Amino acid sequence: MATIKRILVTGGAGFLGSHLCERLVDQGHDLICADNFFTSQKSNVQHLLERPNFELLRHDVTHPLFLEVDEIYNLACPASPVHYQFNPIKTIKTSVLGAINLLGMAKRTHSKILQASTSEVYGDPDVHPQPESYRGSVNPIGLRACYDEGKRCAEALFFDYHRMNHVNVRVVRIFNTYGPRMHPYDGRVVSNLIVQSLTGQDLTIYGDGSQTRSFCYVDDLIEGFVRMMNGPDDFIGPVNIGNPDEFTILQLAQLVLELTGAKSKIVRQPLPSDDPTQRRPDITLAKDRLGWEPTVALREGLGKTIEYFQSVDLGSFRNPTPNVIK
Ligand code: NAD
Ligand code: UDP
Question: What's the start-to-end Cα distance of the chain, in Å?
Answer without folding.
Answer: 48
